[in-house]
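Lesson 9: reading folded outputs for more than one chain in a single document. The general rule is that every protein is listed as its sequence immediately followed by its structure tokens, and records are never interleaved. Here is the first one.
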Amino acid sequence: MDPVSVGLLAALAGGAGGEAGRQVWAGLGALVRRPFRRGDGGGQAPAVSTGQAELVSLAADPGDQGRAQALSTTLAVRAAVDEDFRARLAAWQEEAELVRTGDGAVTNTVSGGTQNGPVVQGRDFTNLTFTTPPPPASSSGAPGGGAADPAS
């Protein structure tokens, strides 16, 4: 299992993703509060952090990358020793990665009148080629406003 992204944790702790982000963050809180699962039916829970302290610490200062890294590391360690937690964390991580946190955000704005040609909105385009006709001739009759009518 890949570690949980430090950037994702910091973004969610800071409130990114709106209501969906808050729900995902609350889901992580519920996950780390779950007790360790004991595979043998008894015995002591492993001597590793549950992640609660790191979660609270990051929530108090979402901009602190060190706190986000500490939470990511704690989640990875707990996942390594608790199979049930690992499975639930993987499911949480899939859900969390669907939340728009602003990483690679794109804001598209088209303004300034009529666009004569393709307007492509999106992110990370490569190898695009457009073959478009020239803009339509202006019918204003102003000098330089359009091509002369070849039929006249």
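And here is the second record, again sequence then tokens.
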Amino acid sequence: MDTTPPNRKASPPLRNGSQTVLADSANPYIHMATADNTRRTYRAAIRSFERWGGRLPTQPATLVAYLSDQAAILNPRTLAVYLTALGQWHHTQGLRDPVRDPVVRKTLEGIRRAHGRPKRLARALRLEHVAAFLAALQQQPDSLRKHRD
């Protein structure tokens, strides 16, 4: 991840109407506080919501309809991430977060019960594999990396 502050000219202040929500000098650090992958995920979530027909800012009833329509298509964990992104968008804009509405939360709980699946667990390493890893490590030259591994 790039740790250099982004160009301030490319990062305009966040605004809610005509009111500046964050000071210009804080924007590079606010930008760096969120990982690039998180930003990409949030953008994908907002694109998905808008392609469905939703508009931002939105209302709880619209989110319930979105969740209901997407429940059979998307994994409940994906829907939860999408809701987080939509809530974060509202929070950043200084608006009331419709994701916190009890009806939205209950809808997501119902989707989890109806469509949820347990996470797939990775298979455990067998002793033969661990022995092979150790043999490969012992063949490496002495270094900090070898001791770490």
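What the second record shows: The chain has seven helices and two strands.
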